[in-house]
Amino acid sequence: MHPPVDPDDLTVALEKAARLIRQANRLAVLTGAGISAESGLATFRGAGGLWEGHAVEDVATPMAFERDPGLVWRFYNARRASLRTARPNLGHEALVRLEERFGDGRFALITQNVDGLHRAAGSRRVLELHGSLARVRCTGCGIIEDRGQEELAELPHCTPCGALLRPDIVWFHEMLPHDVWTAAADAVAKCQCLMVVGTSAIVYPAAGLIAAADFVDARVIEVNLERTAASQHANVHLLGPSGQILPRLLRML
Ligand code: OAD
Questions:
Q1: For residues 95 and 89, what is the distance between their CA atoms, to the nearest angstrom?
Q2: What span, in angstroms and rounded, lies between the C-alpha atoms of 108 and 184?
Q3: Is position 237 annotated as part of the catalytic site?
Q4: What is the Å distance from ligand 1's center to 227 Cα?
Q5: Which structural domains are found in the chain, ordered by start?
Q6: Residue range 188-239, pLDDT digits in tens
């Protein structure tokens, strides 16, 4: 259980955060699974952090896929299925408004999420660090396809070449897509304010962006239900659900 948040403290923190955003010429936002929690999607490390008795780190690796592709596909097919009913929430929508407010070149939305809900909400430029649940990649010919919300076979194979498909997700022990990572690092290096929303900030290199903001002396605003590994870098903590905090913050700008 977390101690209740004093509403006065939250108002003061929101005012401070709004001031930091107004003062920033460039704003970057890093999101994690928490922003989609109010859309009904489970976070990775919530509720014991286990899936069918496996730690996420054990199903989201190339070794796990080699050992038992059926298990890994069951995990990802279940996550794809949960997307069919998930809709963006008020937190995603607030970030769309923020992008419109800052305009091209002054706003970057960097996400660790693979659920596509930022785009579904209307965010135009989204840097997806960990890939996308909608896409599959062939382990043989390397072709990448967007399969949207289509129901896939238990062990899907590539139509052109017949080899096994894998989710187009960045797994533990794999490199992030170079162009996406470079754009994200660049956006943080140039921002005056980084907002970190709904992430436990323990998975690298994504979490390293928060320390990088500190390094360039950007202000850091954290939005989360609780304190996290990011908190040591944060100038302001907005404790509460992002679907409530972000719209409130937006109204104060
Ligand atoms: P986690 O599950 O580790 O953390 C979710 C965070 O969201 C926690 O800090 C929660 O306190 C917070 N949270 C939950 N509900 C919230 C709400 N309504 N509003 C605000 N915050 C809320 O998820 P990530 O940090 O995104 O990687 O995990 C990072 C990466 O680890 C994922 O991208 C994934 C995973 O393994 C890959 O798949 C490669």
A1: 10
A2: 8
A3: no
A4: 12
A5: 1-41+88-130+176-253 (3.40.50.1220), 44-85+132-169 (3.30.1600.10)
A6: 999 999 999 999 999 999 999 999 999 999 999 999 999 999 999 999 999 9
